């Protein structure tokens, strides 16, 4: 990473592989992507890793509404700040519509990362550390994401227009470097105990 950013923490994210025939090996590098309503990670080999589907979600919007529902960094941050600023009453819960990036009322970490990297508030380095195939054929991969903050943070720089979003993301982050090293050096091919 460039010298104007410093490693400040890491987090682990479980992602699904939409095409189970394509999997990655532990250590494979991947990068964040945003393509319309789809936000996730793409490996150097082109394998997509997407957030776990919300099993309670409403069906996707109609084609003519897809452009309006496409998450942009501005819409993501606005939706997050509106969700934090208001406590819904019982009546408003019935009228609530699906906001892109929200999973059970909380914004997904992948959408938070996408918004913060789009505003250049954080840089990331991501790599696959674990692969798990479930009995129903679903493949999930654990991605270790290193978070790099601008050096200016230590001089008083603050997150522009996205402080609450950054705070929410960093609640999931860790700086336990022994755990990070063990994730990177663990032999995942060994039998589980």
UniProtKB/TrEMBL annotation:
<feature type="region of interest" description="Disordered">
    <location>
        <begin position="52"/>
        <end position="71"/>
    </location>
</feature>
<protein>
    <submittedName>
        <fullName>CW-type Zinc Finger</fullName>
    </submittedName>
</protein>
